[in-house]
Amino acid sequence: MVMLKWKPVFSVGDPAVDYEHRQLLELVNKAAQAILENKSEEVIDQLFGDLLHGISVHFAHEERLMRTSGYDQLDTHKKDHERLLDVLRDIMDCQRHAPQKSSKDLAKLLSDWFIGHFSTHDTRLHNKLGPHYQTNMKPS
Ligand SMILES: [Fe+2]
Ligand SMILES: [Fe+2]
Fold first, then answer.
1. Considering only CA atoms, which of 48, 56, 125, 124 is closest in space to residue 84?
2. Domain around 78
3. What is the 59 CA–ligand 2 centroid distance (Å)?
């Protein structure tokens, strides 16, 4: 079951960034699907760990670019990253107690966040920096 699908509206206009964003979507789908299929705690923990790691690496990459380029909206952009990480950690904490709810929360959170963050903060950032972004993620 695919919970979130890539849509053209998510594009920030840089293929390397779009590639990383698509990889993150896949990690979200894997974690949410594992919850819905009642996979073992170990498997779910691993997938959430992969998701949190992937998102953290991507955010760190963007934040480094913002710092080194003197980007004028670093604080606002970084705060939005931190907001997502906080909510994601909350979902990880409660997923053992109410897995169906967690999966719905995860899908809703990420779809809202993708539309909101990618189409505003990321699009502005990458339009301003131009196409010099190097992806950290390797094709799987
Ligand atoms: Fe961002
Ligand atoms: Fe991003």
1. 56
2. 43-61+71-129
3. 6
C-alpha 77 – ligand 1 centre gap (Å): 6
Model pTM? 0.83
Is 98 inside a domain boundary? yes
Q: Is residue 113 part of a domain?
A: yes
Please state the domain count of the chain. 1
Confirm whether 35 is domain-assigned. Answer: no
From ligand 2's centre to the CA of 117, what distance in Å? Answer: 8
For 96-111, the pLDDT digits (tens) are 677 667 777 777 777 7
The position carrying tokens 């719905």 is 104
| pLDDT, tens only, 32-53 | 888 888 888 899 889 999 999 9
Q: How far is CA 112 from the centre of its chain?
A: 11
Rounded to the nearest angstrom, the distance between the alpha carbon of 97 and the centre of ligand 2 is 30
